[in-house]
Amino acid sequence: MDDGQKRALEAYSRGEMAALELRRRLGGATYSEVLHFLGEAGLPLPRAPVDGREEQIGRAREWMFPKHAA
Length: 70
What we know:
Elements: H1 3-13, H2 19-25, H3 31-41, H4 54-64
């Protein structure tokens, strides 16, 4: 993964980039691959951009990143 891709992954994790744009910048990565890259980098899933999804995203974070759950 090059520096531009790492920056894109970090921007996605902060909620500053849409998933489709990230996947394009990662060479057409699947969502599964994005999750793998996030885990390798120790980055959390982005916060839910739509009200009402916070609980769903929180459960996913806890399941995927148990050490970082808050």
